[in-house]
Structure formats: structure tokens, C-alpha cells
Amino acid sequence: MNSAEWRAYYRQNRLDRLPVAWDAPVGAVARAVRVSVARFQLGESSEGRRLRALAWRTGDAAYAEAIELFIREEQEHARLLGTVLDRWEARQLRRHWSDWLFRRCRHLLGFYEEIAVLLMAEIVALKYYSVLWNGTRDAAVQRVCEQMLHDEKFHVRFHCEYLHHRFGGRRWAGRLLTAMFAGASAVVAWNHRAALVALGSSAEDFLDDSWRNFAAARQAILTGEAFVWSRATQQAEAPAVLPATRPATWAEILDFARTVAQCGWRAR
């Protein structure tokens, strides 16, 4: 889709929101899950001032307006997750090393690189909210996950299509994106490992499915094909690709994430 079509999509999606039965019964929630959701809620709450400014500098007004609407959608996710935390009587976070690390990485380079870092977060969110949906019996939380999964799959496609203009057909870009995703997915898997287990998954399962989603997104960026993700199967349906090459073993990836976490904690 072109920029005007994405702007129209976001405008329509802002109106077509799923109702949430906040008065549904609240079941028991593991402490690890409450902590994990609080960290994701913090990550969704960015004001996006730098991103907005850089988007307007592209000279594409429709794209800049689409970015504005994308940021508002992310902030709506923060509001929804905040309400979930209130239901659980869990506190919201003001800061966390993982949020600091992602924001720092976003701001290190230029606009395309910031979009690429955002894309990594959107890809891991597809698996995370799928795990949360599968692992809870709370009808309100499941409905929140359904809404966010709908939004996130289009966020991935939106960013893939824009990054195609910068990285399309360039092999070095595929290697760069793979390195970025290796770091991002490892940090998230390690940071949320206890919650993943509590929800019936694992860090290894999280990484395995996230890498499959990344492989499709990377192919979409390089070829210009549309990224398609199915909530029914909870996996990417297109572009059809072989699994992305994963670095070493899951144990080594998680060990790397632990090292990154320690560095991020010290640098706060």
C-alpha cells in the first residue's frame, strides 16, 4: 500500500476496535506474568517525539500522518495493558533497563534504522501476545491480545513496506536485519523467560516462532512482497521462506541476552 492508503487504514482501524468485557472474572495471575506485562506496557508507552519529527522530514505528508496514527495506536496498546495491570492490582513501571536499551538503540542512527528497531519489537510482540492469549483464561485479557495482534501484524507490514524502499534487494541489509533481530529477540526471551514458562511456553519456543516470523518479514523487506500473519495459526503465512539462519544454539543466544542485560543495567 502507498502512504495515503496506510493513512486511511490507520484512520479506519482507530474506529474499528474490539469491545473488552472488563467486568469479566479475574483469575489467578502468576507474579512473573504481571511483571512481564508491566515491562511490555512500558515499551508501548513511548511518545515518539523523535520518530514524528523524522517522519515529517521525509517530505511525505501522508506517511508522516500515518506514523502519527501508528504512534497513537501503540499508545492505545499501553492504555489497554495499563488497564489489564489495574485489573491484576499490579503496578505500572516508570522505567526498566530493557526499555532504556531499546530506546537507546532506536536513537543511535538515522530514520530507517529507527524504523528497523521498531520492527524488531513488533515482530517479537506477535509471539508474545500469542503466548499471553494462549496462556490466560481471562476473557478480557484474551480480547486485548486479539486486538493488539490484529494491530501488530499490520504494524509489521507497514514498516516492512517502508523499509523495502531503503533495503530492497540488498543482501547486506538482510545480514544487518538478522543481526539486529538476534539481539532483540534474545533480550526479550531472556527478560521474559519466567513469564513465558508460567504461560505454558518457553524461551526456546518463543525464539523459534519469532525467528520464523522474522524470516517472513525480512523477505518482505528485500522483495517487496506483503507480510501476512495469521492469528488462527499464529504464524506468518507470507512471504513463504525457509527459516532464518539462527546464530548458534538457544542456550548461547540466551547467554548473550544475559550479557546485554547486565550491560544495560549498568549503563542506565
What is the secondary structure topology, with strand pairs?
Elements: H1 3-15, H2 31-43, H3 49-56, H4 61-87, H5 97-108, H6 111-135, H7 139-167, H8 171-191, H9 193-198, H10 203-223, E1 228-230, E2 235-238, H11 250-267
Antiparallel strand pairs: 1-2
Helix pairs in contact: 1-4, 2-4, 3-4, 4-7, 5-6, 5-11, 6-7, 6-8, 6-10, 7-10, 8-10, 8-11
Tag the structure with descriptive keywords.
mainly alpha, Ferritin, two-stranded antiparallel sheet, 11 helices, 3% strand, globular
Unreliable sequence segments: none
What number is the mean pLDDT? 89
CATH topology, by name, is: Ferritin
CATH superfamily: Ferritin, core subunit, four-helix bundle
**What is the annotated CATH architecture?**
Up-down Bundle
Estimate percent helicity.
Answer: over 70%
Order of helices and strands: HHHHHHHHHHEEH
Query: Largest beta sheet: what is the strand line-up?
Result: 1-2
| Class of secondary structure makeup | mainly alpha
Number of domains: 1
Please tally the helical runs, counting DSSP H or I stretches of 4 or more residues. Answer: 11
Tell me the name of the CATH class: Mainly Alpha
Give the overall silhouette. Answer: globular
Report on the biggest sheet: 2 strands, antiparallel
The fraction of residues assigned to DSSP E strands is under 5%
| Beginning-to-end CA distance, first to last residue | 39 Å
Strand tally is 2
Radius of gyration: 18 Å
